[in-house]
């Protein structure tokens, strides 16, 4: 999804505050009319799973994003621990992500509406913000200092999802929001997400962006949550420090032939990217190993 933002400072990232516990959503959909509670103010973005609108809550003027999804395109329901009945998949997964401790790096859902033809999710709206892809292009490339701050937040966001039983399954540069004032990061859009399953996922059902897709999802019967996430993290980091993608097509992804680096990219950064983009899933680092890598210990 494309959400437009503003200026790009070159400063250290500030850690965004997590949402307060009293804002935790109930599993039941809100019965009141959406329009009695919120004033919609135009489209923020569109994706394969829905359209996102900017909205103002009438009681206090607070800004939110409202994701509208047609039911015919979002028919799957799942049962999650703590709830007595099945819930729409994206709703259920976002409820799981709100269980304490809440992550400041993952977009939060505050309430949802269930209507005859559509579902509507009321989501956190960080601002001023833009998607990471636009942030990279408008800044003429990121310094490793900025990339390191963003990457740390993204790894923690993905780790939070896995720890809470949620596999995002579509990590890419348009599903990451950057606050252009604080450099705080939010992982967004759980439309393609799944429950974590140690048995893996059928590759023919992979729904993520192909540019960030691991080779096993293109060639093997199964792919697995953590190695897939780590591969996508490697692609994101490569894009941040180079401004172009590491693979030009699916064949290059299968071969593991990484495009050239900018001459300014450090040896430590290249090493971390290479480890994340290992063609063998079992040889990719864990989230903890990524954060303990020498590149994250660098001073410059």
From TrEMBL:
It catalyses: L-threonyl-[protein] + ATP = O-phospho-L-threonyl-[protein] + ADP + H(+); L-seryl-[protein] + ATP = O-phospho-L-seryl-[protein] + ADP + H(+). Its EC number is 2.7.11.1. InterPro entries: Kinase-like_dom_sf, PIM1/2/3, PIM_Ser/Thr_kinase, Prot_kinase_dom, Protein_kinase_ATP_BS. ATP binds at residues 44-52, 67, 124. Residues 1-10 have a biased composition (Polar residues). One of its GO terms (molecular function) is ATP binding. Residues 1-23 are annotated as: Disordered. Signal peptide: none annotated. GO terms for cellular component: cytoplasm. It is an enzyme of class 2 (transferase). The keyword Membrane does not apply. Keywords: ATP-binding, Kinase, Nucleotide-binding, Phosphoprotein, Serine/threonine-protein kinase, Transferase. The active site is at residue 170. It comes from the Eukaryota. Residues 38-296 form the Protein kinase domain. PROSITE patterns: PROTEIN_KINASE_ATP (PS00107), PROTEIN_KINASE_DOM (PS50011). One of its GO terms (biological process) is regulation of mitotic cell cycle. Belongs to the protein kinase superfamily. CAMK Ser/Thr protein kinase family. PIM subfamily. Proto-oncogene with serine/threonine kinase activity involved in cell survival and cell proliferation. This is Serine/threonine-protein kinase.
């Amino acid at each position: 999804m494309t959400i437009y933002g503003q200026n790009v400072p070159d400063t250290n990232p500030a850690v965004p505050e997590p949402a307060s516990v009293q804002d935790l959503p109930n599993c039941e959909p809100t019965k009141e009319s959406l329009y009695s509670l919120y004033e919609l103010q135009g489209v923020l973005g569109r994706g394969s799973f829905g359209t996102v609108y900017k909205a103002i809550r009438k009681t206090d003027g607070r800004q939110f994003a409202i994701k509208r999804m047609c039911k015919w395109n979002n028919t799957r329901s799942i049962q999650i621990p703590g709830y007595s009945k099945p819930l729409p998949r994206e709703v259920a997964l976002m409820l799981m992500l709100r269980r304490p401790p809440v992550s400041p790096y993952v977009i939060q859902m505050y309430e949802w509406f269930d209507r005859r033809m559509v579902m509507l999710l009321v989501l956190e709206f960080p601002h001023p913000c833009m998607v990471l892809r636009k942030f990279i292009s408008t800044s003429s490339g990121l310094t490793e200092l900025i990339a390191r701050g963003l990457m740390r937040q993204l790894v923690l966001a993905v780790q939070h999802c896995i720890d809470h039983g949620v596999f995002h399954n579509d990590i890419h540069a348009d599903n990451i929001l950057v606050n252009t004032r604080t450099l705080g990061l939010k992982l967004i859009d759980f439309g393609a997400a799944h429950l974590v399953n140690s048995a893996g996922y059928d590759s023919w059902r992979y729904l993520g962006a192909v540019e960030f897709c691991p080779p096993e999802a293109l060639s093997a019967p199964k792919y697995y949550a953590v190695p897939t996430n780590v591969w996508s993290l490697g692609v994101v980091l490569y894009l941040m420090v180079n401004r172009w993608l590491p693979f030009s097509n699916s064949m290059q992804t299968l071969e593991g032939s990484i495009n050239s680096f900018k001459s300014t990219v450090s040896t430590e950064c290249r090493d971390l990217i290479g480890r994340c983009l290992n063609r063998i899933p079992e040889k990719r680092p864990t989230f903890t190993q990524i954060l303990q890598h020498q590149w994250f210990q660098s001073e410059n």
